[in-house]
Amino acid sequence: MILPYTVRLLCICFATFFLVHAALSLVIWACSSAAIRFGEALRPRLAARILLFLRLSPFVLAIFVVTALCIPSYLWLEPDATFEQVGILCVLAAILGMAIWIASIVRVARAWSLSLRYRRQWECESNQTRIAGHDSAVFVTPGGAPLVALAGIVRPRIIVSQRVLGALRPEELDAALRHERAHDISHDNLKRLLVLLAPGVLPFVRGFASLDRAWARFTEWAADDHATAGESHRSLSLAAALVHIAQMGAAPGFSPLASSLFTSGTDLRERVDRLLGVERAIPVIPRRTRIFFIGSVLVAAIFLAVALSRPETFYFVHGLLEQLIH
């Protein structure tokens, strides 16, 4: 296929993104089970951060390769010829790269649209109220569906259904609201948006279901720990709130960009056991392991900085692009 200069650049960018992202995604997918087991030996907040880093790393690194290596080497070293032959494999990889981007954008747009619809609904139907001990207002929605959630990304709001507000004792409600405030402090709804934006291994094939579930689980545990702050009476109150809400029935379908206190897919027993102190002790990461991890990140950053400062790097990358395009 013969393409002009600018179209060839777009084709190379999408093809490079797809190949780099697919290769890194397969590595992360192969390591996901070990990473989840490793995360179970850490504090939930740290475990959630590590899994989120792994989940987003193929996406971020593929973008880095395209913007920092692919585009500069092409613009610098590729002759501004009018037309040039492009191989079918490069075109196919570019189509797949474009497809996974389209799938991600559609997924995010659908989630954002659903979030806006829910936001308009509860803004029209709910009433604001103040809860003792909490600075921010809480939006109380009518109806009998059990709901305690943090909705929104730019200006997140805590949503509580009237049934939950009337059923929970003051200390249970306080613990539940502290849990949702912990999601707000950690910007967990924004992280959910980034996870939705990150492409899957192939178009319409996510491939990271176990990693996503584990990240969501550690995120809830981290919010539980932040809400209770190590105090036994708060842990007991939050555990009681979870049990009471679960007994009310399944929570209604809510925005994918919202953090809900409890959903039907949550392992209730595991969370309650943690809150009641029935979990195993969490070992401390050895000092040598932490030093090795930090050192590896610094060495990788220095290597990249040196590589980007040398012209030989871009000549090498341009040679690879020539192999890809033909």
Description:
- The chain has one domain (2-325).
- The chain is elongated.
- With 326 residues, the protein is α+β, with helices and mostly antiparallel strands.
- The mean pLDDT is 85.
- Strands 3-4-6-5-7 form a 5-stranded mixed β-sheet, with helices on both faces.
- It has helices spanning 5-39, 44-77, 88-125, 162-167, 170-185, 188-197, 209-228, 232-247, 268-275, 287-308, 311-325, and strands at residues 2-4, 83-85, 127-129, 138-141, 148-151, 157-161, 258-260.
- Helix 1 (5-39) runs antiparallel to helix 2 (44-77), helix 1 packs across helix 7 (209-228) and helix 5 (170-185) crosses helix 7 (209-228).
Compact overview of the structure:
By secondary structure, the protein is α+β, with helices and mostly antiparallel strands. The protein has one domain. It has helices at residues 5-39, 44-77, 88-125, 162-167, 170-185, 188-197, 209-228, 232-247, 268-275, 287-308, 311-325, and strands at residues 2-4, 83-85, 127-129, 138-141, 148-151, 157-161, 258-260.
